[in-house]
Design goal:
Blueprint: E1 4-8, E2 10-13, E3 18-24, E4 33-39, E5 46-52, E6 57-60, E7 68-73, E8 78-83, E9 92-99, E10 113-114, E11 118-123
Parallel strand pairs: 2-11
Antiparallel strand pairs: 1-3, 3-8, 4-5, 4-9, 5-6, 7-8, 9-10, 9-11
Length: 124
């Protein structure tokens, strides 16, 4: 089936930028929908952005729209999330996810496959 391997993230001051990447392998690379979620301790994992891989149509959570950009390099089977104008409330563990069937993008239960998680920390 393959796997999702994440990289990037790190720490930045408010107003700064960070990128996270997610390389897909095997049949997972052919997933219809790929997404980024984030989670902080004690809270539910929430959808941040998603991309229909065939059309590259994006979806964004209201909280990140205009600041984050989701994209995919199909030749590299790699999903990206560019994060700009970061705020302390963006601090979280970020996870990439893949759904073979293009179901509802912001439901955690839509996704069959998950990356290992990457920490993003924004200080004020």
């Amino acid at each position: 089936q393959g796997q999702l391997v994440q990289s990037g993230g790190g720490s930045v001051q408010a107003g700064g930028s960070l990128n996270v990447s997610c390389a897909a392998s095997g049949t997972i690379a052919n997933s219809c929908l790929m997404a980024w979620f984030r989670q902080t301790p004690g809270k539910e994992r929430e959808g941040v952005a998603a991309l229909v891989t065939s059309t590259k149509f994006p979806f964004y959570a209201h909280s990140v729209k205009g600041r984050f950009t989701i994209s995919r390099d199909n030749a590299k089977n790699t999903l990206y999330l560019q994060m700009h104008s970061l705020k302390p409330e963006d601090t979280a563990m970020y996870y990439c996810a893949a759904d073979p069937q293009c179901k509802t993008w912001d439901l955690r239960t839509t996704y069959n496959y998950w990356g290992q998680g990457t920490q993003v920390t924004v200080s004020s």
